[in-house]
Amino acid sequence: MAVTVSLVVLFGLVLFFLLRAGNLGYGSAFTAAGFGFFLASTGAAAPINQLANAVLDAIPNL
Description:
Elements (H helix, E strand, L loop, with lengths): L1 H20 L4 H15 L4 H14 L4
């Protein structure tokens, strides 16, 4: 739960700054989609949460 809340805040901040700067490319579209999935917790959120947890678990092993 804490990881999801942190990712929502992170995606929200990144999206805010991308929109404010006027950089509306593929990166901002991906950020907006990720933010929406984490925020809404739809049926597609479970695989995205698993992917995010796998990436976060892999980071210390690098």
